[in-house]
Amino acid sequence: MIPTVKDVAKRANVSPSTVSRVINDHPSISVETKKKVRKIMEEMDYFPNATARNLGTQRANTIGVILPPLDSQERLGNPLYLELLNAINETAAGFQIATAVASAANSEALLENVQRMHRQKQVDGFILAYSEKDDPISEYLYQQKVPFTLIGRPAKREADIIYVDNDNQLLGKQATEYLIEKGHKNILFVSNVDQEVIFFERYFGYQEALMLAGLPTHPAVTMLQPEDYTSFPEIIGQTGASALVIIDDIFALRMIQLATLHGYAVPDDLSVVSFNNSIFATLVHPYLTTIDIDVTDLGKLGTEKLLEQINHEPSSGIQLVVPHRLIQRETVRALK
Predict the structure, then answer these.
(1) Which stretches of the chain are DSSP H helices?
(2) CB of 60 within 8 A of CB of 124?
(3) What's phi and psi for 263, nearest 5 deg?
(4) What range defines the domain where residue 42 resides?
(5) What pLDDT does residue 52 have?
(6) Residue 286 CA: distances (Å) to CA of 176, 220, 228, 314
(7) What distance in Å separates the CA atoms of residue 191 and residue 74, rounded to the nearest whole number?
(8) Would the pLDDT of 117 be above 70?
């Protein structure tokens, strides 16, 4: 026999209206009661009628997750976004909320996708999984007053946009300091993006660490076009660099392949520190020394913050929300 709202209410010793409010995540119901009722719903294999629930609340009971424009192989294959999606989906499911993904090959198509989802009321709000300078998607969400949470620090309107983040400047600083502690004096910062906020923050952290140590800083080495890769050995030769701070794990593997192609061994000739501690960090030798940013916690907190907005609960922007840690592996050599 299929259980009903009344069956759940009787077993939980609450009224059927309370069960309905729990299903709709109403703010008038305490966290303890919600946990109690949801546990009983799970035990009884009770599933709310989604159509009836949506009509009653005038909501889609779905949140959208906006991935960055998938305009490169690194972005298309980056496991960070899969980890983030999994954390968001698991957190949303705990509130009986579904998730939908917005993705496209470029910003124009992505904006059209997001606009359609919003105008057709397919979702109640969005989680924007990236932060980029002059991003048309974040501008649209802000101007249209659409509930959204940003994963990363906003490029502007920091006081008005709700966001969750690591301290990316501190990440860049600590990665560079680790190399300095190992005896490296000529260190380069290498990236395949130059408009994302994490690029600016991590590069600023790199500069800060070197300046505080009285060591030379270098312009960021940005690999945006195929011809940029051909200048790699010349840059290494001109700077005398012995170590690289690289924007993320997947691009770090690309740079290690490039270094090997030009006769530089990692870590014997070039040491490498990257970010994210993704599955790629331990797929091939040498294993990457990298900084773990706790993607799961970013996704969980981002989802909770979005649901607070949708439910009109008090909320505020957050910075430096998730701690990080350096994972020492095989890509850094200590110099004498």
Answers:
(1) 5-12, 16-23, 31-43, 50-57, 73-76, 79-93, 107-119, 136-143, 168-181, 197-212, 226-230, 232-239, 249-261, 295-310
(2) yes
(3) 90, 10
(4) 5-57
(5) 46
(6) 19, 24, 25, 47
(7) 11
(8) yes
Return the amino acid letter for 209.
A
- Residue 145 CA to residue 158 CA, distance in Å, equals 15
CA 336 to CA 331: how far, in whole Å? 16
Say which residues have a Cβ less than 8 Å from residue 143's Cβ, sequence separation at least 6: none
3-class DSSP state of 259: helix
Q: What is the DSSP string of 162-178?
A: -EE---HHHHHHHHHHH
Please report the pLDDT score of residue 125 as a whole number: 97
Q: Which two tokens stand for residue 137?
A: 């998607």
Which tens digit of pLDDT belongs to each residue from 268-298? 999 999 999 999 999 989 999 999 999 999 9
Name the token pair of 2. Answer: 């299929």
Cα–Cα distance for residue pair 58/310, rounded to 1 Å: 12
Is 87 contained in some domain?
A: no
* Residue 249 maps to a domain: yes
Q: CA-to-CA distance for 304 and 309, rounded, in angstroms?
A: 9
330 closest CA partner among 277, 276, 272, 280: 272
Residue 224, in any domain of the structure: yes
Q: Is residue 96 part of a domain?
A: no
Output b/e per residue, 249-286; b: 16+ Cβ within 10 A. Answer: bbbbbbbbebbeeeebebbeebbbbbbbbbebbeeeeb
Reported pTM:
0.80
Contact present, 324 and 166 (Cβ < 8 Å): yes
Q: What is the CATH number of the domain that holds 257?
A: 3.40.50.2300
Domain CATH for 45:
1.10.260.40
Residue 312: phi and psi, rounded to 5, are 60, 35
Parallel, antiparallel, or unpaired: how do β-strands 243-246 and 187-191 relate?
Answer: parallel
DSSP state, 152?
Answer: S
